[in-house]
Amino acid sequence: MGNSPHTDGIVAGRISADAVADNFSDLHPPLDDHEALVAADRCYFCYDAPCQTACPTSIDIPLFIRQIATGTAESAAETIFEQNILGGMCARVCPTETLCEEVCVREVAEGKPVLIGQLQRYATDKVMAQGKHPFTRAAPTGKSVAVVGAGPAGLSAAHRLAMLGHDVVMFDARPKGGGLNEYGIAAYKSVEGFAQAEVDWLLQIGGIEIRYEQKLGESITLETLQGQYDAVFLGVGLGGVNALRAEGEDKEGVRDAVDFIAELRQADDLTKLPVGRRVVVIGGGMTAIDAAVQSKLLGAQDVTVAYRRDKSAMGASEFEQVLATSHGVRIEFNAQPVRVLGNGKVRGVEFARTTSAGGELTPTGETFEIPADQVFKAIGQTLTTDAGLTVERGKIAVSETGRTSVTGVWAGGDCASGGDDLTVTAVAEGRDAAMDIHATLMGKGA
Amino acid sequence: MADLRSEFVGIKSPNPFWLASAPPTDKEYNVRRAYEAGWGGVVWKTLGEEGPPVVNVNGPRYGAIFGADRRLLGLNNIELITDRPLQQNLREIKAVKRDYPDRALVVSLMVPCEEEAWKAILPVVEETGADGIELNFGCPHGMAERGMGSAVGQVPEYIEMVTRWCKQNTRMPVIVKLTPNITDVRYPAQAAKRGGADAVSLINTINSITSVNLDSFAPEPTIDGKGSHGGYCGPAVKPIAMNMVAEIARSPETAGLPMSGIGGITTWRDAAEFMSLGCGNVQVCTAAMTYGFKVVQEMISGLGQWMDEKGHSSIDDFVGRAVPNVRDWQHLNLNHVTKARISQDDCIKCGRCYAACEDTSHQAISMSADRVFEVMDDECVACNLCVNVCPVEGCITMETLEPGMVDERTGQVVSGEHGDWTTHPNNPSVVAAE
């Protein structure tokens, strides 16, 4: 094709197929058996372990690591899956550096945590590669539950409900399950179709039917589901994207980062996926980093993440920031977009320099431009429908166990209030809501 | 620089590190390379009587247990004495000794328990110019089934008899190698002394099964689905060996009998510990088998550095220095009171001390909501378990209560006097003070 990183415009094939394949290979290659034993041996088997407390799904980390160390990775995987049925994906995408590994006593003492995430992957991969599913369904309860959204929260809830003997029907707006695991996270964190393989593996529990391309508020409504099922769980995520609220954001070349990532994740051939020569990503979260790094990996010449606040306020973890900068992405802090420049097509973004000391965002009066032929907006997602439920701060209001304002309707994951927008948090919320649904349906509810 | 030269039962070597009689010393090629690497001496792998040599198994000879990162902690072997012809070994011994006159070369021997058999082999060994002989009364596998090795070492009368035969039939110093597969090592040591032994060396390997294959239900190493007990050695056996050494050193019947220390010696520190318990030198095998001959260089430099730091100019300065401090339990000072102390600066809050104390000991460590672990002096019996399970060296220490202080656990004022079980009022056989 003759394109290179220096070709102007938004074009495909900037680098060779081999280079693309290399760039999008596994971010953390899996531990081999010996590496896993060495890594497991570093665990001190802490009493009332801080790592377990830090895990949103409360996986018994010291126990599963000891199970690996004694050559029983299958038992380790069961320990993980009991708490977190998406333990395989979480092992890949969890920001462990701000969760379990951050509080690992060996991180605190030596700056070198036990490789909890990679050990979790070692155990879960082993079992999933064998195709084994460690759980079986309880006797049928005769109850049925609708789960809307086949992302982490919905899958977690559905699995737990099916395991407890309920019949589950899942509805998802997209043609595939997995939610952001399939459409959202960076490709190098979930290689070789892992997200779909995980969904298939999870469904081995039985008792779960998934109906695709069913969107809440369109082909299905909450009212109908409430009429047809004994309970409803909503794990619909955040389907909308915040507007930039800067002049010119409708110019050609400006797009939502989540759409770019979804297209990238679904692309059969990444050498055919166009990317700009100069890419500007606006935002400060994981989505911004994922879009920026993957742009660079596709061969973009210059990629800048522009974030309106300072480093300490950035949603993306230190690890993610370093990942970005180590790939040659520049992070511009205290840069608030003012207008997208260009005549029809984007040619740059004008920013106002800000100060954000003390949390208050104030323009300094200085402005500057960053040239761009492609701009990604990654400034947060929004709820697309509240389905008539009470909403607080843009999310469906829920109790500790996921109860919404309407009896018989639970919600969890990114669409619901409470917790960070993380896969692992969604899994925990789905699981806990399922337990509450179970208790309620079986007459043991509060 | 400290002088590491050693003279053991008249045998001189440039340092006290000898290779033990074992696979590494089975032939000229190895022994020359060992000397080149720096080993002060070698005990040649055990020779048997003239005639067709023994045969070894043709499957695995070794089994092992491992620590972290596959660090070899214990090795087990079922290899027999040399399986090479006697004359070939003798030729090689002679050639090596000729080329390395400054190194110790002792020959290990094992022949049937008949005087004629010993009378036959002693002169041919003497003829090689070897510095001494070591009587292998220790090998616990294979040869013991034929009435040799540990089968002899387990019968003090045989030890004495064979030792006497050897002393009567050679001018060479006689070292008797003891088996640990007995109940009280002092008796075989006494027997060796009665027989006129110049020294004892200990320990030989310990009867062991290192692992069982849970698929085939066979002990490992497995030969065609079956296994035999082997001889256990390596770092894991060091504590057992040191106790046996100390028992001989402090027993009135054997005190002063020269000892060559063997058993899991892996570093200079291990060697220094054995020597402080009375060993004039040490013998090494598993460390060399694990890491190669080069390990002796660390042993030499390490021992030298330590001696320099402590002001020991020769090895005689510290050999046996720990012996007077090995005592019977009944003589330990019961008035010595200590308490565990946790350094909050060093604590990494893993809580292992808490789990150990709370679950298995004396409930003497408290844990706060923010994971601060503290010792409760009114419960602490100073058992030391918290020190042992703490992953941070030096984080938990034992503090001695000075005389006059109150032990909060007992309410008693700490006495400055020595008081042990022999004089304790709870002892029914207490000896009344005069």
Secondary-structure map with pairings?
The complex is a heterodimer of chains A (446) and B (434).
Chain A: H1 17-23, H2 33-41, H3 50-54, H4 61-69, H5 73-83, H6 87-93, H7 100-103, H8 105-110, H9 116-129, E1 144-148, H10 152-163, E2 167-172, H11 180-183, H12 194-203, E3 208-212, H13 222-228, E4 231-234, E5 240-241, E6 254-256, H14 257-266, E7 278-282, H15 286-297, E8 302-306, H16 318-326, E9 330-332, E10 335-341, E11 348-355, E12 362-371, E13 374-377, E14 381-382, E15 391-392, E16 395-396, E17 409-411, H17 423-441
Parallel strand pairs in A: 1-2, 1-4, 2-3, 4-17, 6-13, 7-8, 7-13, 8-9
Antiparallel strand pairs in A: 5-14, 10-11, 11-12, 15-16
Chain B: E1 6-8, E2 11-13, E3 17-19, H1 28-37, E4 41-47, E5 62-66, E6 72-77, H2 86-99, E7 104-109, H3 115-126, E8 132-136, H4 150-153, H5 156-169, E9 174-177, H6 186-194, E10 199-202, E11 206-208, E12 211-213, E13 218-220, E14 230-233, H7 238-250, E15 259-262, H8 268-276, E16 279-284, H9 286-291, H10 295-310, E17 338-342, H11 352-360, E18 365-367, E19 373-375, H12 385-389, E20 396-400
